[in-house]
Amino acid sequence: MVYTGRFHLEEHEMKRIGYETVDMIVEHLCTLQDKRVIQPKESEWNDALLHENIPMEGESWETVFEQLQHGVLANNAYPNHPRYFAYVPSPGNYISALAEFITNSFNIFAGSWILSPGAAQVETATVNWIKDMFRFPQESGGLFVSGGSMANLTALVVAKHAVLQNYIQEAVIYCSEQTHSSIQKAVTIAGFQPEQVCIIPCNHRFEISISALHTQIQQDCENGRKPFCIIANVGTTNTGTVDPIEDLVSLASQYGIWVHGDAAFGGPAILAKPEAFTGIEKLDSLSFDPHKWFFQSYDIGCILVKDASLLKNCFFALPEYLQDAQTTNQEINFSDYGMELTRRFRALKLWLSLKIYGLRTFQQAIQKGLYLTEETQKIVQNSKYLEVITSGLGVCVFRFVPSTYESQETVNELNENIVKDLHATGFAMVSTTILTGKKVIRLCPLHPDTTIQDIRETLQRIEYYGDKRITNKKSMVVS
């Protein structure tokens, strides 16, 4: 039998398809401001995609490219849109996107030095830059992972191995009611029980209460439990709040507790507002997501550990089929420092972006995000319909409040419906959350291309839809 299966394209075909793809991407990015942020549901296309049988014979590039453009890419929200204010935006940058194309085309295996010394050197250099940014000590280290969820999990597993030597029965993990949900997932995967997580209340600024935490730690010690780890929020998703890091580290040092900082969202603001991050260099570990406020394409997260040797102590394994990949002291296998053996060359896009744009460009973009947040707060404060709930790093939280008294439940429902009305137009995307029992609206303006006018028009639409719903409700009552 002759096997003819080949994934071969002639050189001219590869160039033609590549040029068409680049043209499509550039056109999309250059016209993004004029597009809907969130798309209406196209159930017909979705059904066609969901029920399509696996093709035994291939189709032409033109046919599949058409389906890709109009049936797949056009049916998504755009987290890199200047009016995408929901959750945590991912503005990205073109160099980062090109780096992904290079990485995937060269198909670099970034797990071992023997296969990719160039990639290992770039990752080492880029991690060192991140260490410097967060003022971590020389003996610290880290690696790039898929995102904050994996970074938080990695930190918790390393802490468990270093502090508890994996004897976890009486261990207690402390976090605030504003801590990200990925911590709960990490706790479960790391083998802890739900009752080993102690949720500490927040103060009026949505920071973890140091006094409540201290009281709880003392009670746990008296009851024979082992205070093990504190999660410090370094820019919460809900409000952009940074916990008092210095106070947490000081308290933890009295009891030998590991302190992990979740800076997945807020971390980059250290370049623009360093005073908010006092004590960050004293954390035992830190997670950080460059694909959020550091303008990288999905996906890339980073985990830093104050003592780099703890990563390798936790994750090193050398089965017989990897004997050839052993390293010297000058070489590094990043697969020995985390859970992934097979690893993408994630570091390249961040390295290239920093090399080409320079850190000052990142700093200025982050400063603009903080400025836009402050301006959002001012506009909301001057509105007769909207009230500020809180404002933190890169996030303004507010809600629409009717001039006449309505029940909390009614106001909550109203704000939820306002957001749905806004999304139906596609003009902008925001998100809701719940704070102190109130359904509130989050606006997170991180994109460097976002304008004050974008924000003003978004807030005007929120006011309009709220007023319209109240007017319609009154009309129904009268009739």
UniProtKB/TrEMBL annotation:
One of the record's GO molecular function terms: aromatic-L-amino-acid decarboxylase activity
Domain of life per record: Bacteria
Keyword Membrane: no
Modified residues (N6-(pyridoxal phosphate)lysine): 292
InterPro entries, A to Z: Aromatic_deC, PyrdxlP-dep_de-COase, PyrdxlP-dep_Trfase, PyrdxlP-dep_Trfase_major, PyrdxlP-dep_Trfase_small
Cofactor (UniProt): pyridoxal 5'-phosphate
BP GO terms, sorted: amino acid metabolic process; carboxylic acid metabolic process
Keywords, comma-separated and alphabetical: Decarboxylase, Lyase, Pyridoxal phosphate
UniProt record similarity statement: Belongs to the group II decarboxylase family.
Listed name of the protein: 2,4-diaminobutyrate decarboxylase
Taxonomic lineage: Bacteria, Bacillati, Bacillota, Bacilli, Bacillales
